[in-house]
Amino acid sequence: MAPFELAQPGNLHEAIALLDAEDARALSGGTALMLMMKAGVLRPARLVSLRKLGLEGIKADGELRIGAMTTLRALEKSELIKNGWPALARTLRTLSNVRVRNVATVGGALAHADPHMDLPPLLSALGARVTIDGKAGGRTVAVEELYAGYLESTLARGELITALEVPPLGKRRAAYLKCTTRAADDWPALGIAVVSDFEDDIRIFVSAATDRPTRLKAAEAVLKGSSYEQNLVKRAAEAAVDEVRIESDMHGSAEYKKQLLRVYLARAIHEARSAVH
């Protein structure tokens, strides 16, 4: 690993100033960053620790608000999340392993922009937003708008994710399913999230088979306002396969992932319909 400077700013303003350089990287949990540095994929001259910025915490007052430095393990154990957003709690149980979840943070997981991550498709389907702060000020964007491609985010130099906001479920129900080719907590070959009130509102996102979390609008159009009978679900699955570019990778060929999409879309819809409000 190449040598680097470790900066530990005491406030957000200092952190943003230190990150305003091409060779600087934010250090939150560090689980993905350190692996990429050890592999020589990234060679930052400066790491800027976010640990002293006070960005931890989980609050719910109708809407769920999570500080960017909150660990995935803290989310998994939160009673607020288990009661109000149970699909999110279930998803976290098989996100990597408990050692990683003890260290990895929600902001770091979202900023990493790996399409195999489990949280982005589910959060996108839930209509979640992130607060981003930088030298030009703050902005709020939908989670899906964070991503430009494989390992590419839309964060500008010096920008940081500082918080995540998730709307209340209300009458909607949610499910996230993934297919892994090895262990249950391995990177998925495909992940799919469904959030719907099973009347007029439905949002479906796929990941891992695509280079970023991708909304399946054609499939939604088939299902919206329908009875969700088996033939319609099959039509929606075919519409989904036709509307997105499926990527081959070490977890499976494009053809294999297309078949996974057909199967797992139906399963995710069934699981969401069976979920308790």
Can you walk me through this structure?
It is a single chain. By secondary structure, the chain is α+β, with helices and mostly antiparallel strands. It folds into 2 domains: 58-166, Uridine Diphospho-n-acetylenolpyruvylglucosamine Reductase, domain 3 (2-Layer Sandwich); 173-274, Enolase-like, domain 1 (2-Layer Sandwich). The protein is built from 11 helices and 14 strands. The protein has helices at 12-19, 31-38, 72-77, 79-84, 86-93, 98-101, 106-111, 119-125, 217-223, 230-243, 254-274, and strands at 5-7, 24-27, 46-49, 58-61, 63-67, 129-134, 137-142, 147-149, 152-153, 160-166, 173-180, 188-196, 202-207, 214-215. The strands form 4 sheets. Strands 4-5-10-6-7 form a 5-stranded antiparallel β-sheet. β2 (24-27), α2 (31-38) and β3 form a beta-alpha-beta unit. α9 (217-223) packs antiparallel against α10 (230-243). The longest helix has 21 residues, at 254-274. The protein is globular and about 60 Å long. The N and C termini lie far apart (49 Å). The mean pLDDT is 94.
Layout: helices, strands, pairs:
Layout: E1 5-7, H1 12-19, E2 24-27, H2 31-38, E3 46-49, E4 58-61, E5 63-67, H3 72-77, H4 79-84, H5 86-93, H6 98-101, H7 106-111, H8 119-125, E6 129-134, E7 137-142, E8 147-149, E9 152-153, E10 160-166, E11 173-180, E12 188-196, E13 202-207, E14 214-215, H9 217-223, H10 230-243, H11 254-274
Parallel strand pairs: 1-3, 2-3
Antiparallel strand pairs: 4-5, 5-10, 6-7, 6-10, 8-9, 11-12, 12-13, 13-14
Helix pairs in contact: 9-10, 10-11
